[in-house]
Amino acid sequence: AADYTWDSAAIIPIVLNGDAITADGEGVTVDGSTATITSAGTYSLSGTLVDGQIIVDTTDADIVQLILNGVDIGNSTGAPINIVSAEETMIVLADGTDNYITDGDSYVFADPDEDEPNAAIFSKSDLTLSGSGSLTVDAHYNDGIASKDGLIIADGTITVNAADDGLRGKDYLIVKNGNITIDAQGDGLKSDNEDDTDKGYIAIETGTITITAGGDAIQAETDVMITDGDFTLTSGGGSAGVIEEDASAKGIKAGVNVNIDGGTFTLDTADDAVHSNGSLVINDGAFVIATGDDGIHADSTLEINAGDIQITESYEGIESAVITINDGNINLVSSDDGLNVAGGNDGSGMGGRPGPGGEFGPGGGPGQGDRPEPGQGRGPRPDGEPGQAPGFDLSSMFGQGGGPGQDGFATSGDYYLYINGGTIVIDAGGDGIDANGAIEMTDGLVIVNGPTQRMNGALDYDASFTLSGGFLVAADSSGMAQAPGESSSQPSVLINFDSTQPAGTLVHIQTEAGEDILTFAPTKEYQSVAFSSAELTKGTTYQVYTGGSSTGTETDGLYLDGVYTGGASYTEFTVSGMVTRVGNNIR
To answer: Are 294 and 272 a contacting pair, CB within 8 Å?
Structure first.
């Protein structure tokens, strides 16, 4: 706290006069258009410096405070503010002032082997920016604001336009508050200490942060921790952007852990929107995500405990080796799998993404059309259910196509999807829920509008699906349709229709007494529906209708508390076990 206070009577003024500088007080020396601060203390800078430099070079143990009191500082061959040595430096943006820093597109170093300073505002020691004024940094050479130790943004309105990274703190980057706008050709916010596992992290408490980045919007070598804030992040040109195979253009990226406790997020990214090479936890927050790759991805574990997550566009919606959903509202659209339980790192770029209809994506393997049709490749299933035809299940070995795609992960007994609550609505072009392992569902509401092509399914699991509670309805084509497994304690039914039903056609299940159990209008054409709820009971006979209408309240295709009329009777079934199969071509 003491860093943010000073004795106003002890402030040393430094006045910038175009190509000259005047200073009144000890601790600062002037040489033409260069001022060098050699002592700890508080210095107030004002005026314009066309082509000069402010240097901090002190061995004192106390803090150096630089108050920017309406400055315009330029340097054509180096860093306008260069903190060579200091215990700690704080740049204070004076109330009601606008401050501007700019550099040239090439630096001249005294030693040709030097590559620092490499930012318009550069510090070799801990640096803090505070105050309620504004600062604009135009960095034409490399980074905007960089610290070789830690960087703290405590407050202020900060705008950075950078040839490479916007804000970079090697050991850590902490944002306590502020209004931050960054346009960077590289990464937006970055912490990149690779040598110390306790460092290289980004912590954001609150603030308004808008980033447009050619690389990652927020990137930490270790952890990203977000408590609150309002985030608008665009990377790699957005969801329609094209990046190189070995490039990374993610929204939020961490090498070890991502932890989000709250905030409002609007993410438009060419690469994964939220990504961790290790674990990822979302405890709350509101997300609107459009991405050319995965919406939310973690290599190891991914846990969602609350929040509102809207993924409007993605390749795969949510992906990790272990996914646990305890609560929250999730609504996602994916061109491939909606929830994908798979292990390993899917890479930083999108070079292996399968192309549609058997075409090769950029650098990728065979596309969707090369996947075996039913009867061509499904062998006996691990949970003991008979396969549809002799052969092998290629879906767990390859990507969406028949060859290795971007997400060509292997099946393992260590891969799990746990659904313990929340509302999950999926619109998937590939598998709605794809588990290269096992699924356990104890509660929650799950709606899947699955694929219309027969080589994918609304549900696709390789080990087992144990369902003990909750509400599940999944509609898709009938080629690879699955229901929860026999190990479940809550009954389910898998209905295959004789013909494809048009999108929006109601499927209605009721008891013989007319009690409504399910009235659902899938958003796509369908020929199969898997359904489970606590209202399905053993020994009870149910009637199935198609078409018609309902007076109920519709939410995500489900109609509740209404009267169903006008449908055509399709069939009836009696629940005799944990899984009841109705219709032809059922496996």
So the answer is: yes
CB atoms within 10 A of CB 261: 17
Query: Beta-strand (E) ranges in 97-222?
Result: 98-103, 119-123, 127-130, 134-139, 143-147, 150-153, 157-162, 167-169, 172-175, 179-184, 189-191, 201-204, 208-213, 218-220
**Residue 362: is the preceding peptide bond cis (ω within 30°)?**
no
DSSP state of 399: S
Coil, strand or helix: which one is 395?
A: helix
Backbone angles phi, psi at 293, to 5 degrees: -130, -135
* Contact in structure between 301 and 321 (CB atoms under 8 Å): yes
Is the pLDDT at 367 greater than 70? The verdict is no
pLDDT digits (tens, 9 = 90+) for 511-559: 999 999 999 999 999 999 999 999 999 999 999 999 999 999 999 999 9
The answer to whether 69 and 94 are in contact (CB under 8 A) is yes
Q: Is the pLDDT of residue 342 over 70?
A: yes
Beta-bridge partners for 55: 36, 82
Beta strands in 403-470 (DSSP E): 416-428, 433-435, 438-449, 459-461, 464-467
User: How much is the average pLDDT of 222-242?
Assistant: 97
Indicate the Cα dihedral angle 180, 185, 190, 195, nearest 10°.
-160
Structural contact between residues 109 and 118, judged by C-beta atoms closer than 8 angstroms: no
Tell me the C-alpha distance between 530 and 581, whole Å.
9
Burial degree of 72 (CB within 10 A; 0-12, 13-18, 19+): middle
**Tens digits of residue pLDDT in 395-448:** 333 333 333 333 444 445 689 999 999 999 999 999 999 999 999 999 999 999
